[in-house]
Amino acid sequence: MSNIRTRALEEFKLHKAERFYEENRPVSEFFGTNVFDMPKMQRYLSAEAYNAVVNAIENGEKIERGLADQIAQGMKNWAVKMGATHYTHWFHPLTDATAEKHESFVDPMIGGGVFENFKGSTLIQQEPDASSFPNGGLRNTFEARGYTAWDPSSPAFIIDQTLCIPTVFVAYTGESLDLKTPHLKSISSLSNAALPICKMFDKNVTKVNVMLGIEQEYFLVDEAFYRARPDLMICNRTLIGHTAAKDQQLEDHYFGAIPSRVMAFMKDFETEAYKLGVSLKTRHNEVAPNQFEFAPVYGEANISTDQNLMMMIIMKKIAKKHKLKVIFHEKPFAGVNGSGKHCNWSMVTNTGVNLLSPGKTPRTNLQFLSFFASVMRGVYEHHCLLMSSVASLSNMNRLGGGEAPPAIMSIFIGETLSRLVESIEKLTDKNLTSSSDKEVKVRSKLHIVNQIPEILPDNTDRNRTSTFAFTGNRFEFRAVGSSSNVAQSTFILNAVVTEQLIRFKELVDKYMKQGLAQDKAMMKVIRQYLVESKKIRFEGNGYSAQWHEEAQRRGLRGIVNAPDAYKEYISKKTIELFEKTGVMSKREAQARYEVMNETFVKKLQIEARVMGDIITNHVIPTAFSFQNTLINNARGIKELFPDDYNELCTTQLRMIRKISGYVNELHLLIHNMIEARKVANVIENEAQKAQAYNDTVLPYLPKIRVIADKLEMIVDDELWTLPKYRELLFFR
Ligand code: ADP
Ligand code: MG
Predict the structure, then answer these.
(1) Any atom of ligand 1 within 6 Å of the Cβ of 606
(2) 493-508: average pLDDT
(3) Ligand 1: which of 208, 210, 211, 215 to mutate, judged by most atoms within 8 Å of the beta carbon?
């Protein structure tokens, strides 16, 4: 018997652990070789050109066209020496993917032959003739041009002999068509808003950087099985498939020994990552079988984001060599944990002070309290928008699944800080001093047994159930989806905090005018912010049903579905936030809203089609084959034992009926789902269409799945054509 699954099983047996990039040198010797970083700029650029780049990075100053020519020359010389033949502007359209269009360096020479050429104008600007990127109506056919423009703050790099130049992507009118532009704008407005507050503590601060450390979760699946599953191939998730008898219930995968085939893959992709200047720090098994995670050391948000996207590209490429497939989807398998991208976020001054570090005496650390309270105030004010920033068809399958943060925003700050916050809330106007109160003790060393050295416990315990947790010197946004571009949620977080920092300074000034000393005025605003944002703080179990009730009582709005969440994007409050912080115009926000809804519809449409295909072309025919076996068996028995037929064929007859029943149900559900699509398809308004798809098409998917999974459990294993969960999740 040979079917697509048995062939995949045969192929799988041939796949073995093997490394392709044996690097025996210490990492420090090849780290960053494929990046045009500062040391290489120094080597390949004139002092003047180098200074121009540094100025652009540090002070946001424009690079003159003349100097750009020199920079382009230097960049090209380096790239060509590294074996690069092409270059591309590398950008992040509104698709969660990256885009590139390669051009060769070579130009013909007069009189024959070619030479490598790269002009400053080409470095700075390109016009990708790509009118088919999502634009939400920002580009009409008569103004269909779009430009990519060089972002000097993120270094160029080489992948596959192609020099990749990070760029923003904007329309002819200057409106952003990507995720990098609002992200960059939000980073600089946050800095501008934070500066006047920082200067109250240290006059030397001239810039505040947003820092991001991204933990990336992912699944690995054997390529042969992947190719035998149309749903994984096209939707990046399984639409049907009965759970394996054993998956994660024994909790034996988390932090377990990494399987050798996976280790070979990890080492290869880590080698490539190091060459690209990404300092990967951790790797481990995650909770679900075949789920893994890595995290690089945190860095500036713009660069961390680019690096994360680079890693996603590299991982896919390297996985191919290992006959593996990387799955970034948030919920590729039912019944086991989904994947997220935890975004560790903080603010650091150019003088090296982490503004979210409480230090030994958080109580007296007014600077820390100012920023800490502003984040909480902002997150509270725009909790719906923040959830909307992580909403997508795929992430909705994960959020609130009892293993991922719920689709409600809340902040966990831990016991020590909770006590501190409560004591500040109680301060009276007369007693606003920041140091008079009892010191909130930072926990001291833990003694375990004699021969074990004392350990220093963290100030906050972990709370994995929280959407947004303070983890000692940063906040961790855990609801972000594993397949997403984190710029989306980060620029919103930046904007939300910026708004409160602006207000913070205004309030301090106001109270000082009323006669309060600076530190008292600050403490008053801190207290006000903490009181105002009290409802967002939650220290309990975010997975529990009680929390959902409690959140409702507190008036915290969770998200029910993606199209509903998207509405927050164009609410009056949000537009005001975007405009005030300069992150986006109303038109840009509206365009994005269109794109989000459009993407939702398209993805769901694809899932529905693939479901139709799998059921009609795999599940039902397989069910019939098995039913035929039963029918033949019953017929044979009838021939041999005509008198005992009824008794001997009880099971067969029951199963034959059962299969017919399931097939009929499936057939009807698929038919109805198609009809629901037809109705939704004619709706013109994208938002209404997305809502209709969500309300009338989406509910069919789990209903169909349940029946298909029941059939999987009764049909002969030999006949089943799709690789099963035990194969997908337990390859070794
Ligand atoms: P966890 O214990 O949460 O699983 P990991 O070590 O896997 O932690 O990842 C934590 C991430 O947070 C890393 O990327 C780390 O560099 C990053 N990080 C640490 N400190 C900060 C900070 N101050 N700001 C931003 N990110 C940080
Ligand atoms: Mg973490």
Answers:
(1) no
(2) 98
(3) 215
Closest-lying ligand 1 atom to the alpha carbon of residue 356: 23
- Is the pLDDT at 52 greater than 50, yes or no? yes
pLDDT band at 732 (very low <50, low <70, confident <90, very high): low
Q: What are the tens digits of pLDDT across the range 405-441?
A: 888 999 999 988 999 999 999 988 888 875 544 545 5
Which of these, 350, 56, 365, lies nearest to 203 by C-alpha position?
A: 350
Please tell me the distance between residue 381's alpha carbon and the centre of ligand 2 in angstroms.
Answer: 24
Cβ(390) – ligand 1 distance below 6 Å: no
CA distance 460 to 467: 15
What's the residue count for the chain?
732
Return the structure tokens found at 316. Answer: 């896919």
Ligand 1: nearest atom to the Cα of 213: 14
Burial of 289 (0-12, 13-18, 19+ CB in 10 A): buried
Q: Which helix (H) or strand (E) holds 167?
A: strand 162-171
157-211 pLDDT, tens digit per residue, is 999 999 999 999 998 888 899 999 999 999 999 999 999 999 999 999 999 999 9
Neighbouring C-alpha atoms within 13 Å toward the C-beta of 396 = 19
Query: Is the Cβ atom of 298 under 6 angstroms away from ligand 1?
Result: yes
Task: Tell me the average pLDDT of the chain.
Answer: 91
**Start-to-end Cα distance in the chain:** 24
Q: Which amino acid is at 96?
A: D
Beta strands in 270-379 (DSSP E): 280-285, 291-296, 299-300, 324-327, 341-349
| CA–CA separation, 310 and 303 (whole Å) | 10
Average pLDDT over residues 622-635: 97
Both tokens of 472, joined, read: 């000692």
Q: Under DSSP, is residue 39 helix (H, G, I), strand (E, B) or coil?
A: helix
In the reported structure, the alpha carbon of residue 281 is separated from the centroid of ligand 1 by a whole-number distance in angstroms of 9
DSSP 119: -
Return the pLDDT at 442: 53
In the predicted structure, residue 286 carries a pLDDT above the cut 90: no
Planar angle of CA 458, 459, 460, nearest 5 degrees: 90
Residue labelled with tokens 């590729």: 332
Question: Would the CB of 353 count as within 6 Å of ligand 1?
Answer: no
Question: In sequence order, what are the residues at sequence separation of 6 or more whose Cβ sits closer than 8 angstroms to the Cβ of residue 214?
Answer: 295, 296, 298, 304, 305, 308, 341, 342, 343, 344, 486
Does any ligand 1 atom lie closer than 6 A to the CB of residue 213?
yes
| d(C-alpha 353, C-alpha 350), whole Å | 7
Nearest CA to ligand 1 atom 1: 215
Amino acid (one-letter) located at 523:
M
Give the pairing of strands 146-150 and 86-91: unpaired
pLDDT tens string 680-715: 999 999 999 999 999 999 999 999 999 999 999 999
Q: Is the dihedral of CA 29, 31, 35, 41 positive or negative?
A: negative
Instruction: Decide: residue 500, CB within 10 A, 0-12 exposed, 13-18 middle, 19+ buried.
Output: buried
Closest ligand (CA of 293)? 1
Inform me whether the pLDDT recorded for 449 exceeds 70: no
Query: 255: Cβ below 6 Å to ligand 1?
Result: no
pTM equals: 0.94
Tokens 């603010």 sit at which residue?
Answer: 347
Task: Quote the distance between the C-alpha of residue 131 and its chain's center.
Answer: 26
Q: What is the reported pLDDT for 99?
A: 86
Nearest ligand to the C-alpha atom of residue 299: 1
Residue 431: per-residue pLDDT: 81
Please give the distance, rounded to the nearest whole angstrom, from the Cα atom of residue 472 to the centre of ligand 1.
10
**Residues paired with 162 in a beta bridge:** 86, 159
Write the DSSP string, 375-400. HHHHHHHTHHHHHHTT--HHHHTTTT
Structure tokens at 193: 């808003």
